[in-house]
Amino acid sequence: MKKIFIYIVIIIIISFSISILFTKNFEKKEEEVVSPEPVERVENNFVDLLHKADGTVEHLGLEEYLYGVVSAEMPASYELEALKAQAVVARTYTKYKQEEKKHDNADICDDSTCCQAWISKENRFSRWEEAERESNWNKIVQAVNETAGKYIAYEGKPINALFHSNSAGKTELPINVWGGTYPYLQIVETSGENAYSTYASEVVISKDELIQKMLEKNSKFKINFKDDDAMRILEYNESGRVKTLKVGNTELSGVEARSIFGLKSAKFEFMIDGDEIKFQILGYGHGVGLSQSGSDSLAKQGKNFEEIITHYYKNVEITE
């Protein structure tokens, strides 16, 4: 009888222990089911666009954003392959800016002097002739959609896809503009850019205006226009742009001269005519990277967008 009682107690203890182990194991499994690890959501196909005019930020689909960039940056009258090249360049530049994180609360802004230009469809339509609005917009949408997802990479990363309006036949090295270098941004030549309105321009300022502008740059500025070398270009760089300009007792880089005197390019000559200084300028923009008018010229010569891109950016690949 005593042995039977001991056996019963042992059985009760074993049963109780098994019950506890099963309950804990079940609770552990149940906890694993209802409390999964959070999954981070990455939105690579969206852009947070900063509107510099009012400081607001707009959340746009990448391709939708690019419609506004291409329509703001390149004339719709340009060849479709040139517009496609611009679309890929703009997409690449956007990806580059997203990684650079220049703006705290946005990926990129709509100021062309800071990032790249952008315009809404409504504002774009208001600036086009009514008869060509739909066809222009459809052409731009086609250029963006037919290159969807494509961007330019160097060693697997999106490049700093700089571009400008007209190189006047030869592009510029970035070191001559900002001091930096990129292996894929070299001097390249393009024929046919002289056929565009952006190829040549003229700026005329008075001697008094020049003195005032220079005093804003250098409070100790002096010039005697009676001297034969009162103004003189001292040096050109490899692309034919002005590297150093002497103005009175001050030396300027071509880039500084462009900014001070309101020139469209650093590729210029000048003449002093009576009380005026006349600047004759070739090209439009900083001259680095893809030339938009050059792209259109290449497209008219039968080049496709990939050939246009690899003409202006060296040793790159177009990837998705």
Tell me the β content. 15-25%
Uncertain segments are 1-43
**Dominant shape:** globular
Q: Average pLDDT value?
A: 89
Separation of the first and last Cα atoms: 83 Å
What's the helix-strand series? Answer: HEEHHEHHEEEEHEEEHEEEHHE
Rounded Rg: 31 Å
Query: Can you count the beta strands?
Result: 14
The residue fraction in helices comes out at 25-40%
Number of helices: 9
Structural class: alpha+beta
Strand order of the largest sheet: 2-1-3
How many distinct domains? Answer: 2
Largest beta-sheet characterization: 3 strands, mixed
Explain the overall architecture:
The protein is globular. Strand 8 (231-236) and strand 9 (242-247) form a beta hairpin. The protein has helices spanning 2-34, 62-73, 80-100, 121-127, 133-145, 207-217, 254-261, 292-300, 305-312, and strands at residues 46-50, 57-61, 108-109, 151-154, 157-158, 163-164, 200-206, 231-236, 242-247, 250-253, 268-273, 276-282, 290-291, 317-319. The chain is built from nine helices and 14 strands. With 320 residues, it is α+β, with helices and mostly antiparallel strands. The chain has two domains: 46-194 and 287-319, no CATH class; 200-282, no CATH class. Helix 2 (62-73) packs across helix 5 (133-145) and helix 3 packs antiparallel against helix 8. The strands form five sheets. A three-stranded mixed sheet has the order 2-1-3. A three-stranded antiparallel sheet has the order 5-4-14.
